[in-house]
């Protein structure tokens, strides 16, 4: 993780004096810019907060309640909906790459190393075919 000086969010206009750079596999969050394999991925502010929370907790299972409280989602099925939106933009949009987000049935979600996924019995949803 590294820090950059003042940046402005192109989605909501907020600014911060120190923006961290988070990476996981081929995913990069640099300030308010998200990219996968070098290709910029446009996210809503809520999707961005959720992704950042997942990456900060990589290799750990995060429960729906944890996501709900840290990302400040407003309705009961918002977590599942937001995870689905992220999968559409980060996993299904890159069918040649391994998926990033996995479901841990009965617990929540994980973004992490295959060993961590295997140890908790995580499952990756089937890829959508067009």
Task: Explain what this protein looks like in three dimensions.
A 5-stranded antiparallel beta sheet has the order 1-4-5-6-7, with helices on one face. It has helices at 45-56, 64-71, 78-92, 114-120; strands spanning 2-4, 7-8, 15-16, 19-24, 27-30, 33-36, 39-40, 62-63, 101-104, 108-111. The chain has 4 helices and 10 strands. The chain has one domain (2-120): Winged helix-like DNA-binding domain superfamily/Winged helix DNA-binding domain (Arc Repressor Mutant, subunit A, Orthogonal Bundle), CATH 1.10.10. By secondary structure, the chain is α+β, with helices and mostly antiparallel strands. Helices cover 32% and strands 25% of the residues. Mean pLDDT is 81; it is low at 1-7 and 10-17.
Count of structural domains: 1
Main sheet overview: 5 strands, antiparallel
| CATH homolog superfamily | Winged helix-like DNA-binding domain superfamily/Winged helix DNA-binding domain
Distance between the termini: 37 Å
Helix proportion range:
25-40%
How would the global form be characterised?
globular
CATH architecture: Orthogonal Bundle
Mean pLDDT: 81
Low-confidence stretches: 1-7, 10-17
Main CATH class: Mainly Alpha
* Cα-atom radius of gyration: 14 Å
Strand order of the largest sheet: 1-4-5-6-7
What do we call the CATH topology?
Arc Repressor Mutant, subunit A
């Amino acid at each position: 993780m590294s820090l950059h000086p003042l940046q402005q969010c192109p989605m909501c206009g907020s600014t911060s004096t120190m923006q961290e750079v988070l990476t996981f596999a081929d995913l990069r969050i640099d300030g308010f810019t998200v990219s996968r394999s070098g290709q910029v991925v446009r996210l809503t502010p809520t999707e961005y907060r959720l992704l950042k929370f997942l990456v900060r907790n990589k290799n750990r299972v995060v429960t729906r309640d944890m996501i709900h409280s840290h990302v400040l989602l407003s309705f009961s099925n918002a977590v599942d909906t937001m995870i689905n939106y992220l999968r559409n933009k980060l996993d299904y949009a890159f069918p040649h790459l391994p998926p990033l987000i996995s479901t841990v049935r009965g617990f929540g979600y994980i973004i992490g190393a295959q060993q961590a996924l295997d140890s908790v019995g995580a499952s990756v949803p089937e890829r959508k075919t067009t």
